């Protein structure tokens, strides 16, 4: 069964067409990287899958239903840096948001708390549940976001730039946590980090108004084609390992 | 319309009282007792809703709602006097205006997010202007405008305390029922939406709760100064506590200290209660910057 089935999809803001006549399928259990230049439509595609935007032309089914009808089976990991870092909320309170229910009132049930604590264990943050979000490092915050998505008990996990703003050591822990999830659910990573895609994905969806699917590893020529020479491509880990230092290793 | 501002102190309004013991006064003088009760009850709502207002950074929206309340008060006084509608009290007008303002600001800012500051300014000034127009045309004896702007303990009645208690319980009940959703909306609206929960509904609920809070102490502190009473205790608590629960508890404690302590001390020192409480709470908020969070 397809996790995502997209047929002749088009979407735009005003007169600007961001996604143009796109068709693709993602199998259940597949791990897919989504890459492309800024403004190419990655985030828009993500919003369409999440049901936050509605297709203008074509159809998009997610987990067997039109996008937006199956939101509760989707775990979404946004960039942790977009939150107010001073908001005085505990790690457990954030993860429990994954158990929010339209009709639920009052306190969370025991079962909800148990699921939230298990999610924290999955990302190795079980000892952090009483800490406030502001006390955590970038990598820890990002893992909290994954724990929150896991608390939804998702069939499909969507991640938006999951390694943005986290340091090298945290990134390794973070990738380790993600690798454990590959076997359990369909995984979609929207990122500029090609090394992350190579390590965690089965294939790559390149989005630049249109969509092209590529198998891994990507050749240099393919990468140049994807980004049309306009975008710096990030190869953090490999380059750092090769150079043996911590300098900024992004290159064209 | 001739508007003069003369702030009323507790001793001015109770000239026959010569005793200095505040609690004996509370026992004997209903007005002080009502103000004290209103202060205690509203401390809970101010501390808890104030924490949401401060952490969600919607202080400007709270300010706009507070000022627009004058429109409701003016309209209620005008219609009740012109058409002899006895049940249309200024308090009812204030509550209605607070809820309408909260919904207008909320709905328009959700639809046109980039215009939020403009909408806040329009509701802020528009509400006040509407109130002044209504009061200008109100027949009969002049309306004591400053008592609504800056508070007047003399205006506190038993029915006000009852309304304050009922509204306070409604606000606290709604917060208890939807606590987790309100927290989630304040932290991440988009994720709440993805869980199938309407983030817009709970954001609007938060604004309405804020609006209702603004009305609770309108008699004692006035619409301008009650804004400080919702923001300053929570803002001070935010400087001192880490978790949202601790901030709420501390904010309730501070709010009670300001309201009750302020009433006692302002009585003893013969100061106008509302402004005195706001000045003291502002000083304490300023001092909180000297304390480092552990």
Task: Name the CATH superfamily assignment of chain A.
Answer: P-loop containing nucleotide triphosphate hydrolases
**Strand count of chain B:** 0
The tally of domains of chain A stands at 1
**The biggest beta sheet of chain B, please?**
none
Class inferred from helices and paired strands of chain B:
mainly alpha
Keywords for this entry:
heterodimer; A: 252 residues; alpha/beta; Rossmann fold; 8 helices; globular; B: 294 residues; mainly alpha; ABC transporter involved in vitamin B12 uptake, BtuC; 77% helix
Task: Describe the protein.
The complex is a heterodimer of chains A (about 250) and B (about 290). By secondary structure, chain A is of the alpha/beta class. Chain A has a single domain, classed as Rossmann fold (3-Layer(aba) Sandwich). Helix content of chain A is about 30%, strand content about 25%. Chain A has helices spanning about 40-50, 90-95, 110-120, 140-150, 170-180, 195-200, 220-225, 235-245; strands at about 1-15, 15-25, 30-35, 55-60, 65, 75, 155-160, 185-190, 205-210, 210-215. In chain A, strands 6-7-8-3-9-10 form a six-stranded mixed β-sheet, sandwiched between helices. In chain A, strand 1 (about 1-15) and strand 2 (about 15-25) form a beta hairpin. In chain A, helix 3 (about 110-120) packs across helix 4. The longest helix of chain A has 13 residues, at about 110-120. The radius of gyration of chain A is 18 Å and the shape is globular. The model of chain A is unreliable at about 235-250 (pLDDT under 50). By secondary structure, chain B is an all-alpha fold. Chain B has one domain: ABC transporter involved in vitamin B12 uptake, BtuC. Helices cover about 75% and strands about 0% of the residues of chain B. Chain B has helices at about 10-15, 20-30, 30-55, 60-80, 90-110, 115-135, 145-150, 160-185, 190-195, 200-215, 220-240, 245-270, 275-290. In chain B, helix 4 (about 60-80) packs across helix 10 (about 200-215) and helix 10 packs across helix 11 (about 220-240). Chain B is globular and about 55 Å long. Chain B starts with 9 loop residues before the first helix and ends in a 6-residue tail after the last helix. The model of chain B is unreliable at about 15-20 (pLDDT under 50).
